[in-house]
Amino acid sequence: QVQPVESGGGLVQPGGSLRLSCSASGITFSIYTMSWYRQAAGKQRELVATITSSGSTNYADSAKGRFTISRDNAKNTMYLQMNSLKPEDTAVYYCNAKPPALLRAMDYWGKGTLVTVSS
To answer: What is the pLDDT of residue 2?
Structure first.
């Protein structure tokens, strides 16, 4: 059973930084499109950032200029560097691993890591 595992969440003050990690074993990590989603209390899950197998990245407007997504295929790990954090970034952050369409396989989701931005 593939289960991506997120880590790195915690409590940080506004303006601070955190780096989230997502480790995904049991898959050919390098061919998967990896994404970070987040879900704040009472709100729908939203896409934060995506990195493709070729390294192309895409960000939600709320993340542009503050967050950086990256991956290390040798370690089967994806990262999200979050800077200039705001209280509205408070949410559970989830890792998603999406296979190439040709595989006709399922996505995999982690269980999430909580990020709380508060003074």
So the answer is: 80
Q: Which of 24, 35, 16 is nearest to 90 (CA)?
A: 16
Q: 23: Cβ–Cβ under 8 A, 6 or more apart, which residues?
A: 4, 5, 7, 75, 76, 77
* Torsion, Cα of 107, 34, 89, 81 (10° steps): 150
Instruction: Give me the phi and psi of 101, to 5 degrees please.
Output: -55, -35
Q: Is 30 helix (H, G, I), strand (E, B) or coil?
A: helix
State the amino acid at position 18 in one-letter form.
Answer: L
The sign of the dihedral angle between the CA atoms of 70, 74, 76, 77 is negative
Residue with tokens 């295929």: 73
For the stretch 52-86, pLDDT in tens is 999 999 999 999 999 999 999 999 999 999 999 99
For residue 47, what are its two tokens? 């896409």
